[in-house]
Amino acid sequence: MATDRDTVLEAAVGVLSRRPTAHLDEIARAAGISRATLHRLFPGREALIREVGLLGLRRFAAALDTAGVEEGDAEAALRRLVHASVPDAMLCAFLAGENQLYEHDDINDLWELQIARLHALFLRGQQQGAFRIELSAAWLSEAFFDLVAGVGWAIQDGRLAPRDAAFSLTELFLGGALRRPGAAAPAPTTPSTSDRRPDTDTP
After folding, report:
1. Burial of 152 from C-beta contacts in 10 A (0-12 / 13-18 / 19+)
2. How far apart are CA 69 and CA 75, in angstroms?
3. Residue 122 backbone class (left: φ over 0; alpha: ψ -120 to 50; beta: rest)
4. How wide is the angle at C-alpha 83 spanned by C-alphas 77 and 87, nearest 5°?
5. What is the longest distance spanned by two Cα atoms in the chain?
6. Among 9, 121, 126, 189, which residue is least crowded by beta carbons within 10 Å?
7. If residue 126 lies in a helix (H) or strand (E), which one and from where to where?
């Protein structure tokens, strides 16, 4: 029976997220295959990590599509995105933590495309009066993605039950992102250039 590449990659992220220096033998055992089979699928460690990153970006893009983030009420779209992205939260955690991924131009391009869609969702929500305007849409985008990643780590470590993940993420994030009547906007600030991942321009 043919080996499912995505299943192997999901097993790999489960190991690498806990032990970034794990040997390929350990990853192969977690995937239930031999090291020889793993090597046939991915010629080396760097290739494996790159493929995990690409899988994570494809899954996050699919979550954005499923949620229909370009459509309708922004708050409702964000709630849909929570439910669509939580099942792949561990892949988001890998994307958040593996900085070497972004040395690859194709991964940078995919990241910038997906974060731009998220940025546009928050900007639309600000224009609709749903989200706080004293927080930039770029920062809301970064914070949301990192919180999804945090859900992945918390589930893996047993600190958060999978059935509670979507509710916990929604309540925590929207509790800080929803606009409050009478909130004053601060003076504009210059965005930091020290972020660990490429970002889109601020609104």
Report:
1. buried
2. 10
3. alpha
4. 140
5. 62
6. 189
7. helix 105-127
The length of the chain is 203
What are all long-range contacts of 65-69, with beta carbons under 8 Å and residues at least 24 apart? 69/117, 69/118, 69/120, 69/121
Centroid of chain to Cα 185:
28
Collapsing DSSP to helix, strand or coil, 131 comes out as strand
Whole-number Cα distances in Å, 160 to 44, 62, 154, 166, 172: 33, 24, 5, 10, 13
Tokens representing residue 116 in the block: 């731009």
User: How far, in Å, CA of 127 to CA of 133, rounded?
Assistant: 8
For the chain, helix, strand, coil in percent to 5 are: 70, 0, 30
Structure tokens at 167: 């509710």
Output the six-digit token pair for 101. Answer: 């991924």
Q: What is the mean pLDDT of residues 47-73?
A: 95
Question: pLDDT at residue 198 above 90?
Answer: no
Which of 65, 72, 75, 3 shows the shortest CA–CA distance to 38? 3
Q: What is the mean pLDDT of the chain?
A: 86
Give per-residue pLDDT as tens, 146-165: 999 999 999 988 999 999 99
Residue in this structure with the two tokens 């299943």, named with its chain if needed? 7
Q: Which amino acid is at 89?
A: A
* pLDDT score for 183: 54
pLDDT tens-digit readout, 68-108: 999 999 999 999 999 999 999 999 999 988 877 888 888 99
Mean pLDDT of 169-189: 71
